[in-house]
Amino acid sequence: MSAADGNWKITINTPMGAQEVTATITTSGDTFTGQTAGRMGDAAISGKVDGDTLSWTTDITQPMPMTLDFSATVSGDAMTGNVKLGAFGNAPLSGVRV
To answer: What angle do CA 83, 20, 8 make, to 5 degrees?
Structure first.
């Protein structure tokens, strides 16, 4: 079991305000799968694990269609990272284990 496995509450500080997402993450070697749920919709996620860092992309349709590129580092019960918001720059993310 990886440090990232479990349930997370992630806050993304976007230019349009904070967006909260819940995520369930299950790692397997150098990859992971999971599920996210929030105001922007529910999505299955999968990505890469590199040490304590997770990376994945998610396509959203609300508030407008774009691809979000996530990178998050897990340290104990906390997660910090960055989200590339398509053409809209970057947004910091933080998470806590729930």
So the answer is: 85
Provide the CATH number for the domain around residue 52. Answer: 2.40.128.20
User: For the segment 50-75, what is each residue's pLDDT rounded down to a tens digit?
Assistant: 999 999 998 888 778 889 999 999 99
Decide if 1 is inside a domain: no
CA distance 94 to 78: 7
Task: Report how far residue 22's alpha carbon sits from residue 8's, in angstroms, rounded to the nearest whole number.
Answer: 6
From the list 48, 87, 89, the residue with the least C-alpha distance to 71 is 48
Return the amino acid letter for 97.
Answer: R
Report the alpha-carbon distance of residue 65 to residue 52 in Å, rounded.
29
Count of CA atoms in the C-beta half-sphere (13 A) of 23: 31
Question: Kind of pairing, strands 66-75 and 53-60?
Answer: antiparallel
